[in-house]
Design a protein that fits this description.
By secondary structure, this protein is an alpha/beta fold. The chain has a single domain (3-154, 197-228), classed as Vaccinia Virus protein VP39 (Rossmann fold, 3-Layer(aba) Sandwich), CATH 3.40.50. It has nine helices and nine strands. It has helices spanning 3-12, 15-21, 27-42, 59-64, 78-87, 122-125, 130-139, 157-169, 199-209, and strands spanning 49-53, 70-75, 94-98, 113-118, 141-152, 186-187, 193-194, 213-218, 222-228. The strands form two sheets. The chain has a seven-stranded mixed β-sheet, with helices on both faces. A two-stranded antiparallel ribbon has the order 6-7. Helix 4 (59-64) links the parallel strand 1 (49-53) and strand 2 (70-75). It is globular.
Amino acid sequence: MCIMEKNYYAKSLNSQRLYEAYQTKYPRVKEYHLEEINFAKDTLCGTEHVLELGAGYGRIMKELAPSCKSIVGIDISKDNVAFGKEYLQYVSNAELFVMDANEIEPAAFEFAFDVVLCMQNGLSAMKVEPFSYVEKIMNLISTGGRALISTYSAKFWPHRLDWFMEQAEKGLLGEIDLEQTKDGVIVCKDGFRALTHSTEQLEEIGKHSGYPYEIHEVNESSVFLVINKKQQ
């Protein structure tokens, strides 16, 4: 992740501002958020130790906590984590920590996880090299566990653009550069770029992992890459 992107998520779109970004007026965007969480929830049986990368203030963690044994979230923003600790104060099996997801290593945690989540287009938002980063993710997972990585469906593009325009109107993002915004990339006039991975790119990432994987399109809004860590 470049310095500009790190600073953006750590300083610009964090805490109350990030919370406000999810208070959208668009029912279709709310549906996207709900169905993405429901897909992840449906993969859980209640016994898993879960890690969420780029967890923000714990929005997804709070929804998934009743469906797993424990859930840990990490986020680069100190403000997000401080706000999240209050947001999650009554969720006894959830913990949120300040950590750069780009620098994750197994030694940073007490145990391997059953499930690692990189949702809400997180793989693109973190600006990582995806093949090597997914190798890092799989090293955090115990044998028999899985990674869930989501991006936007191409079918959701007009709704995604509406949502980002709404955020810009609220002052949460810079003004959208409509001439440069296209092909799944949203560009703001302050230099911020919101990228995404195509379904074909997720296929390549899954193949490169060396593990069995599946691609699922959810609600014509999310596309999930699910990588299962079977014994190799």
